[in-house]
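Supplementary Text 2. Reproducibility record for the structural model of the 738-residue chain.

All settings were left at their defaults, and a single model was retained for analysis rather than an ensemble. We include the record here because the model underlies the residue-level annotations in Supplementary Table 4.
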Amino acid sequence: MKSRPLLLQLLRAGWRTTFSTEAGRLRFWALGSATCLLALVLGGLALAHATYDGREIRGAARAPQIISEEQRDEAVALWSWGSDDVDGRQHSVVYIEPMRSNAPLPPGLSHWPKPGEAVLSPALLKAGQREGIRTRYGKLAGTIGAEGLEAPEERFAYVRPRAELLDREDMHPVRAFGLHQGGVASLGESMSIPGFSVFAAGLAGFALLPAGAFALASVRIGSVVRERRLALFQALGAGKTSQIVFTVGEVAAPALCGLAGAAVLMSPTLISNVRFPWTEFTLSAQDARRALPWLAASGALAVVTMVAAAVVPHPSRRPSEGSTRPVPRFQRQRAWLPWLFPFAMLFAVRGSELAGDDLRLPVYAAGVAAVLLTLPSVIAVFTGWAGTGIAQAGNKLGRPGMLVAGRRMAAQTRVTARFVAAVVVMIGLVAQTQLWTCLLGENAANAMATKDRISTSLLVVSPYPDSVARLRDFTAALPSGVELLAAQEVSPGENTARLTLTGSCTALTALKLPCSAATPATSRQRQTARDVRVSELLRWSGNEAEGQVVARQGRVDGVHAEDESPILIAVDKSGANLRVSALKETARAHLDMRANAEPLGNSWLLGANDLEVSASWVRLLGLIGACLTVFAMGFTALAEFLRFGREVAPLSVLTGGRGVFGAVAAWSLVLPTLLAAVFGSVVSLWLTAPITVGGRQPVSDSLYLVLAGGASASAAVLCLWAWCSANRLAASWRPSAD
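Retained model, structure tokens:
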């Protein structure tokens, strides 16, 4: 019973020591900030998991229960899926036709639209306002409710085609909506976003790793004073339980304050939908509330992690024989940690090649994280070896600054590792962010080049209708100045051109193709004086840009299939750009319910834009990781300068001046930072080397020179800061009994 009041006193003593010194106050803010950020990152992981679960639940609820053709009599509706794009972003379009008056509705619809009507999601209606999305699929009959969308900002549409355009043979009979067992095919927004494992790997690499580094750095702030106090407890006969309770009392208060701050910052997600910057993503409050137990567990895990990090690694150094003075443990680096670095490098570079497609990115991210965690210890080993040589050189040359700095570097390698870890992680994060951002946009380089060359001056209209009447109606409804041609590929084995373009004389002339009204025979044109639109059409039709073209004057609706079905090409007779939205609406009104008009290579451009959304997440997570690293670097630098100032302040008495402070700061602070800049840049270059696109590196080598130069400049600033800090403490230092 007596032990309980003692433990409470130790707990209270640990809390009081937090504010007793300047280092203690800095430690409080560091621990609180680290706990808050760690809880936010872990909570973000929980929210991401809940969001993916919510997408799957709502996607399953609107998925059709498709039945076979033999069971068509049991069908309540016909269902078919298609796609379209608005403002460069692809979205899903579902075509529906009820078979019964009491047919069950898809989630999010309050009533069945009438023939020729459409129901759009609010995000699609807003995004396509300038492109006339309200009338593209017919008359607007309302908006889709939140229960029918995978995410609040999902672009989705339900369309009930007009009777004359309804293709029942191309639609699937469905019994009902909602799948409760088995897998659900991706539909809607889920088709263009990466899986949860990919997102979790990015969050772990870009945010969780820096947050963990910040947590470890905050735990070690003020560690010398605290370990000296724990050594005193041990000398007085206190057991390990008493030391742990004292440490818990010191860490628990700032950790709980940080957790409270994280709860305040996370609370808006539970009340209303929250839009993330730069990503066009809105977090559903419904999903966030579903993740509330996991959010609570994440906060508890963050506090437990901080307490465990402060309590577990505290073996005390044995005092020298005959010594009665309490001594904190030695600050040398763990001997086994640097040996993990080469294995981490091998795992990062070669492990992803051996992993499957689904695990390749997580394995690579884990390897990069392991490299960035073990590299500071390698740098600390090098500085420790260098410190011994610097101390010997300072002793021979009579330079007290080199002597003190060398012995300090050799004896306190763990301090060096903590100090340079932020620099290493910062360089690695910047390099990885640049790598994945450049990589995601490379796949559509050819399509982007085509867009730059011809823009929307040539559009492909699909499909080619079977009905001549529909084609004539579409041709009559085209805007003024728009001409239509039929493009058809011919077997390359024949002694004819590889691509035949059929159209009116005006349309052929618009593409600078020969036309003769008197003799409508076939004319050939080679690459000389060829219109750039024809060259691009050849390239995207699967032929070489220098291939031959046949220009044939005639009616578009009179083209007959030869080797390949013809495709429709729309051009302006003046060579100007066409209004894509207007042609899409006209095509859907007259050609087919799935008809579309798009530029050459548009599917690649849409894929690139979908990947650009993923790239925006990479940039956001990279920015978060960089901010976390800056926090860690700032607190670590402040703590190191306090330690540095206290340690070297007595030198002003021994040396008779303060010039020695600059030499000690340059050797013990600037040298490790420069080594971190060089090692971090070289290792980051090595990590990005296996990832190539088209045989070349996505990241320029000059980036690493910029990173190394920036880190070196930061080292000079830190040296000046440390020198000023030591001068300030030396001015107030007075000898006192120890």
